[in-house]
Amino acid sequence: MKKILVCIKRVVDYNVRVRVKPDGSGVMLDGVKMSVNPFDEIALEEGLRIKERLGNVEVVAVSIGVADTQQQLRTALAMGADRAILVQTDAAVEPLTAAQTFLALAKKENPDLILLGKQAIDDDANQTGQMLAAIWERPQATYASKVEINGEKLSVTREIDAGLETIEVDLPAVLTVDLRLNEPRYVKLPDIMKAKKKPLDVTSLDALGIVVNQWLKVVKTDPPAQRQKGIMVKDVGELVDVLKKKGLI
Amino acid sequence: MNSVLIVGEHDGKTLNQATAKCVTCAKAIPDATITIVLFGADTSGVSTQAASLAGVTTVLRVDRPENEHPLAAILAPQVAALATDYSHIFGPSTSFGKDLLPRVAALLDVGQVSDLMAVESAHRFRRPIYAGNAIITVEADPAKKLVATVRVASFEAAAGGGTAAVETKSLSVDLPSHTRYVGAKSGSTDRPDLQTAAKVVSGGRALGSADNFKLLFGLADKLGAAVGASRAAVDAGYAPNEMQVGQTGKIISPEIYIAIGISGAIQHLTGIKDARTIVAINKDGEAPIFEVADVGLVGDLFQIIPELERLVGT
């Protein structure tokens, strides 16, 4: 294991309550706090832990997005990534285009492992890692909650609906991470200062030969249906009566 | 004329109910024939179950030893090879489908509609984004294949009584050897499956410990309910991951959801908003869970749980 790519997405911060624009043209993003997608933070943490365990591994953080995505890559560098690459674009990039872009980077960088979050908390698509693995023609281990490296193989425990599943994949491979894989480290001030000196290269989709494709056209954005506010009961007896009357228990 | 191929989910013995929900979604596609494909080492039993789903025309069995465990890298090229004959390829938005379908979409060089929640036309759908804080309507190019994962909480299961033809299909597809199944550890219980249960009792961080969390099991068993958990409870180690309900866990739609000691973070609420009735029990009367609950009770969980368990059976 010599090199790990970690794919980072700039998303609306986890704590922001996203609201739909009244005209249905999208969600309100002006002035909203942006952060590293929390799952990608876990992916980066895992890459850094592998580096610390094995030594002599380069961790490269990569992202696709607007110029300000440099902020999120600086965060990744402060966490401990060795260098970063931003594929700068103002275009809305769908998961397959993102996967094609990461593949183009992978062909230049030849990583042994590509780490991503299992989904981004903005579009909740849960696609990019799987798509990247498909077009890279390499294994995918999604929803990882435990990763062991055995030479040129990875043993990965995955969180699935029925419990936990373990698979073994040959490197190079794509790994998408789940919540309980690790707890990302906090960034300390000296690390932020150090990160400013680390290399952050900016390239473009054109330079990588990527054409932005739109497979799904978003025609409308609506707020979700609201549930009616219900009733409060004063004790367990009344609760049981209400539920029995509704035929629920 | 549309033709929908549904990748059926099963464990070798039982067809997962998520498949029947995909059938209902597929029926909403105008003028569609519906085919279910089953991959496995021996799908004879599950193919009978799939063939009985009303509305299904054909069930395809692709039996080979490599298909015993559902590995996306193994199944995706087979689904992609079959896709030639279909306009739509659906799978459930479960850990099985979410792992597999994007790999299929990429092999077909198309995007994917994740968590399809409503069909507006053959190529126009609705799906949630931002943990369900917004619903987008998307349109796909009718000239291309449409790959989607179906948000199972949005659809009822298709009824039985169908008589689909069962066909054995052999595909000449080279399968990779770079991905191997090792084993699984499931928290198998006699309780109903959380994803499809009619009743769910769910606990949060306020339970305080793994031992206290077990208090819910008695209540659940008395009700015949599945047990769920908030992310906070799973992260704290009170409950295993397969119990997690919410944006990154299971999205469920039971008849009744009893949330005990769950504050109601938006990421949790997105997993339960299709529940018919939500009951919230919490010591904090200001907890956001009460904003969405149909019935709320403020009080001490450790008094309420045993009392509720005693009273529900009477």
> SSE order of chain A in H/E notation?
EEEHEHEHEHEEEEHEEEH
Order of helical and strand elements of chain B? EHEHEHEHEEEEEEEEHHEHEHEHEH
Count the strands of chain B? 16
Task: Give the N-terminus to C-terminus distance of chain A in angstroms.
Answer: 56 Å
**CA(first)-CA(last) distance of chain B:** 54 Å
Quaternary status of these chains? heterodimer
Shape label of chain A:
globular
Number of helices of chain A: 6
CATH homologous superfamily identity of the largest domain in chain B? HUPs
CATH class of the largest domain in chain B: Alpha Beta
List the total number of helices of chain B: 10
Helix and strand content put the structural class of chain B at alpha/beta
If you had to describe this structure to a student in words, what would you say it looks like?
The complex is a heterodimer of chains A (249) and B (314). Chain A has 249 residues and is of the alpha/beta class. Chain A has one domain (3-245): Rossmann fold, CATH 3.40.50.620. Chain A has 6 helices and 13 strands. In chain A, the strands form 2 sheets. Chain A has a 9-stranded mixed β-sheet with strand order 9-8-7-10-6-1-4-5-11, with helices on both faces. Chain A has a two-stranded antiparallel sheet with strand order 2-3. In chain A, α2 crosses α5 and α3 crosses α4 (128-136). Chain A is globular, with a radius of gyration of 21 Å. With 314 residues, chain B is of the alpha/beta class. In chain B, α1 links the parallel β1 (2-7) and β2. Chain B has helices spanning 17-27, 44-51, 72-82, 95-107, 210-213, 215-223, 231-235, 266-269, 289-292, 301-312, and strands at residues 2-7, 32-40, 58-63, 88-92, 112-116, 118-121, 124-129, 134-140, 146-150, 165-168, 179-186, 199-203, 226-229, 256-260, 277-282, 295-298. Chain B has 10 helices and 16 strands. The relative contact order of chain B is 0.12. In chain B, α3 (72-82) packs across α4 and α6 packs parallel to α10. Chain B has 2 domains: 2-168, HUPs (Rossmann fold, 3-Layer(aba) Sandwich); 199-312, TPP-binding domain (Rossmann fold). In chain B, the strands form 3 sheets. In chain B, strands 5-9-4-1-2-3-10 form a 7-stranded parallel β-sheet, with helices on both faces. At the A-B interface, α3, α4, β7, β8 and β9 of A face α3, α4, β5, β7 and β8 of B.
